[in-house]
């Protein structure tokens, strides 16, 4: 079997187009423009690239983008004061504080100071609790993107065996909650899991979120399974810098029924879902119906 390639780039473009349509009608019918504020502290090069890309895509879908770039030495007090201002700004519907923060700042404290209704990253402890108890919440963007692609490919996920490899707070754990919410039988595997190959071989759905280049080979994949590769690993191959996932793509694509490539799979969905979350937050804040198909 040669797997169907799940094209995350095309899927993300479609999500952005849906968001843009909804934003246009919000402006026309209700006179509301959703706004996303992104806060960057310091000069981490990767974070600068992400923030630029987020700002550009926010404007492209017709939303307002507010960028706040703060010096690496910014005090916790000043950062919390900015978050407080954004919490109280009616033009700001989504707030994202780019992680990682410089070491002297307490990430948990800062994230939990964001108004949960504007927490478009879904990292606030209230949103984590709401997701864990199956209530309406803001859902972390990367797992939301994975869920959308899985639903699109399968329709219903009910009763499927799913394995999530990795238990981070930003990907693994919320991914497992979302799959549970869609009635999968979910196993969370991690660095201490015994016999990982055997666990993966039983899964109809494999979500790999580890950060280890190509650690899941094709012979761990059940024939016909759907493989969602969240990993983004930069390695050197034949003297060139290349991006690879946590799954060994060439061999897994021979066994899987469907697979996301790296790059061009999960990656583009993350910002698309950030825009979807901002739109959702704006609709909720204004008591308007949420966009269909863009939430969990
Ligand atoms: P993390 O380092 O926080 O968590 C990694 C997890 O993998 C841990 O829970 C750990 O227990 C598990 N793990 C480590 N070694 C293992 C092993 N040998 N076997 C099984 N499990 C093992 O990482 P993260 O933030 O969840 O990110 C994971 C990967 O996803 C990274 O490559 C990251 O770059 C990528 N990522 C991509 C996106 C995207 O937009 N596509 C977003 C977030 C993260």
UniProtKB/TrEMBL annotation:
Pfam families: THF_DHG_CYH (PF00763), THF_DHG_CYH_C (PF02882). One of its GO terms (cellular component) is cytosol. InterPro entries: Aminoacid_DH-like_N_sf (IPR046346), NAD(P)-bd_dom_sf (IPR036291), THF_DH/CycHdrlase (IPR000672), THF_DH/CycHdrlase_cat_dom (IPR020630), THF_DH/CycHdrlase_CS (IPR020867), THF_DH/CycHdrlase_NAD-bd_dom (IPR020631). Its EC number is 1.5.1.5, 3.5.4.9. PROSITE patterns: THF_DHG_CYH_1 (PS00766), THF_DHG_CYH_2 (PS00767). The keyword Hydrolase applies. Keywords: Amino-acid biosynthesis, Histidine biosynthesis, Hydrolase, Methionine biosynthesis, Multifunctional enzyme, NADP, One-carbon metabolism, Oxidoreductase, Purine biosynthesis. Pathway: One-carbon metabolism; tetrahydrofolate interconversion. Homodimer. Catalyzes the oxidation of 5,10-methylenetetrahydrofolate to 5,10-methenyltetrahydrofolate and then the hydrolysis of 5,10-methenyltetrahydrofolate to 10-formyltetrahydrofolate. Belongs to the tetrahydrofolate dehydrogenase/cyclohydrolase family. This is Bifunctional protein FolD. The lineage of its organism: Bacteria, Pseudomonadati, Pseudomonadota, Alphaproteobacteria, Rhodobacterales. The gene is folD.
């Amino acid at each position: 079997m040669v797997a169907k390639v799940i094209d995350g780039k095309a899927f993300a473009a479609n999500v952005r187009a849906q968001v843009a349509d909804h934003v246009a009608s919000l402006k026309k019918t209700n006179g509301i423009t959703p706004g996303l504020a992104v806060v960057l502290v310091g000069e981490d090069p990767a974070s600068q690239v992400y923030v630029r890309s987020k700002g550009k895509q926010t404007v492209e879908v017709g939303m307002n983008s507010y960028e706040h770039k703060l010096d690496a030495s910014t005090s916790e007090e000043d950062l919390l004061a900015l978050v407080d201002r954004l919490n109280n700004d009616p033009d700001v519907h989504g707030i994202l504080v780019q992680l990682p923060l410089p070491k002297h700042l307490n990430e948990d404290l800062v994230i939990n100071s964001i108004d949960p209704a504007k927490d478009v990253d879904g990292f606030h402890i209230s949103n984590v609790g709401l997701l864990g108890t199956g209530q309406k919440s803001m859902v972390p963007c990367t797992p939301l993107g994975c869920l959308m692609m899985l639903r699109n490919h399968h329709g219903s996920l009910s009763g499927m065996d799913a394995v999530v490899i990795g238990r981070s707070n930003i990907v693994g754990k919320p991914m497992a909650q979302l799959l549970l919410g869609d009635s999968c039988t979910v196993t969370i595997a991690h660095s201490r899991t015994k016999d990982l190959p055997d666990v993966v071989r039983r899964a109809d759905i494999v979500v790999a979120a580890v950060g280890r280049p190509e650690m899941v080979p094709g012979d761990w994949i059940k024939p016909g399974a759907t493989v969602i590769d969240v990993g983004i690993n930069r390695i050197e191959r034949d003297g060139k810098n290349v991006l690879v996932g946590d799954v060994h793509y060439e061999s897994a694509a021979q066994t899987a029924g469907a697979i996301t490539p790296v790059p061009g799979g999960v990656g583009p969905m993350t910002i698309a879902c950030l825009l979807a979350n901002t739109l959702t937050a704006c609709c909720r804040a204004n008591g308007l119906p949420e966009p269909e198909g863009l939430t969990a």
